[in-house]
Write a structure and sequence with these properties.
- This protein has about 190 residues and is mainly beta.
- It has a single domain, classed as Ganglioside M2 Activator Protein, Chain: A (Distorted Sandwich), CATH 2.70.220.
- It has three helices and eleven strands.
- The strands form three sheets. The chain has a five-stranded antiparallel beta sheet with strand order 3-11-10-6-7. A four-stranded antiparallel beta sheet has the order 1-4-5-8, with helices on one face.
- A hairpin with a 2-residue loop joins strand 6 and strand 7.
- Helix 2 packs across helix 3.
Length: about 190
């Protein structure tokens, strides 16, 4: 069981956690470890999160208590470290920006699946009213996610901020990303 401050983690992080089967991207993503770290803002969103394996695939169940609306003002920073030669090479990739833009670029179909699966349903792509939300045994198919082309054992440090630059969420996710081999075609 993972417990901690939980906000729009049900966005980009869900895509990393749940992309296990499906279809078309040239990579497979396996979650090795997930840690929710403390957010030091005044009003981080609270909740519970459970990551399970069902039929060999990762699924996520969550309860999110948003005491304020989540909207297009949510920004992110993430740093990616890569394990190489028995050590972690830090900051091999860094990025920052508006979370909604990140979702549209890399995970639009996946986020739409989250919006459909979460209760109550989220009708707007980037804006969610305050309230309690639940997600039960959710899984995203690989074909719904377009990860950047980075392979190997990676540690992704994700931080989210509200419109006032208050730190509202922190998560560290270790993943193994392997390149899929193209199957030969006979015929």
């Amino acid at each position: 069981m993972f417990f901690g401050k939980f906000t729009t983690f049900v966005t980009f992080q869900i895509c990393l956690v749940c992309c296990q089967k499906g279809g078309s991207p040239p990579a497979s993503i396996k979650v090795v470890n997930l840690n929710i770290c403390p957010a030091n803002g005044k009003n981080p969103i609270q909740g519970d999160m459970y990551l399970d394996t069902v039929d060999g695939f990762k699924v996520l169940s969550a309860r999110i208590e948003a005491t304020r609306p989540l909207n297009r003002d949510i920004t992110y920073t993430f740093q990616t470290d890569k394990y190489s030669n028995s050590d972690w090479e830090t900051d091999v990739y860094t990025d920052e920006g508006v979370l909604c833009d990140l979702l549209k670029e890399y995970a639009e179909d996946a986020w739409n699946s989250v919006r459909d699966a979460i209760e109550p349903k989220l009708t707007n792509f980037c804006d969610s009213p305050a309230g309690e939300y639940t997600l039960d045994k959710f899984e995203i198919l690989e074909k719904q996610f377009k990860p950047p082309p980075m392979f190997g054992r990676l540690m992704i440090h994700l931080n989210l901020y509200d419109g006032d630059d208050e730190h509202i969420f922190c998560a560290d996710t270790e993943v193994e990303v392997t390149q899929k081999m193209k199957q030969p075609s006979f015929g």
